[in-house]
Known about the structure:
Belongs to the class-III pyridoxal-phosphate-dependent aminotransferase family. ArgD subfamily. Pathway: Amino-acid biosynthesis; L-arginine biosynthesis; N(2)-acetyl-L-ornithine from L-glutamate: step 4/4. The protein is of the alpha/beta class. The chain is 38% helix and 19% strand. The chain folds into two domains: 2-54 and 295-378, Aspartate Aminotransferase, domain 1 (Alpha-Beta Complex); 58-293, Aspartate Aminotransferase, domain 2 (3-Layer(aba) Sandwich). The protein contains 14 helices and 17 strands.
Amino acid sequence: MKEWFERERAVHIQFYRRQPVVFVKGEGCYLYDVEGKKYLDMVAGIAAATLGHCHPKFIARVSEQLKKLVHVSNLYYTTPQIELAEKLREITGMDRFFFCNSGAEAVEASLKIARKATGRKKFVAFSGSFHGRTMGALSVTWKEKFRRPFEPLVQPVEFAEFNSVEDLEKKVDEETAAVILEPVQGEAGVYPATKEFINELFRLRDEYNFLVIFDEVQTGFGRTGRWFAKEHYGVKPDIMAMAKAMGSGFPIGGVGVSEEVAEKLEAGEHASTFGGNPLACVASLATIEIIEEEKLVENSEKTGKYLRKRLEELDGIKEVRGMGLMIGAKVENAPGMVSRSLEKGLLVNATSENALRFVPPLIAGREEIDFAVDILSSLK
């Protein structure tokens, strides 16, 4: 593997701090490195490989579309894009859609849409938030170490304390275009919003007439034991950003909006060359269909409860939180646990010095959970 590390360093900008492993093959919940070693994947491409690796039905659908049509641009209509929007209307409850290629792009589009629809400029985001690394998405991302090297960013932006009704009430006003939040904060360590907090957010929306943007990039498509995390709260945002699990690892993102927001948008105000191309849309349609056929939303809820139970039994785990198969655990030395787990054939992710994140494929079952917990319990 060292040869591959050296080759990578010679040709790549060193933006990433990668784990010391080179993968060449995946099957189900498992990955294989260049030396043939097998690993249980509890990261799933950061909550993206919904169906696991190389799901046969997914591969068949995408392969079939590769033989038909890959890309023509949005100068023209294509059938998969229309079919995907119709399916998303059914499962999201949103009314109209725009397609792009990633979560950051979906957030960028959401911010632009909010400004155009309201005629206002100000955004309110939250402590612990992470919305992406492009300039607009970065502007509403909490950590200063991400933002500071690239300032000046989009302004005005104010940050309120996550889950603090009192601080939220101080930050929103008549100048607010939109409040953007993750219903479950992923990069912060998997922290769900409280129902009280969400209820107050929507009350304030009605009072000040701003828009609510839900960033469901990480929480969407069954990850939390519901199709989307908003269902845990019984609310409908004005704008919803989607990506990651949307194509089970194939790059695609999207934005859903209410009819009231859509009516205020005009042709030419936003676009994407590759967004919603036929291949990406078929990958997303196949993902959704397989989730439905194999009842993976239900499995996410059931297996997620089992994962939480098993983690709570472990020595060294101080707190377990999350929904469905989006679980965070508080530990003493998360990066060290990630390294030692890798040596034993388990992939987990550290979001901070004391937080592990578990976001396995939605096909994971008790066998995979038991294997993962056995490895974690063996770490010294």
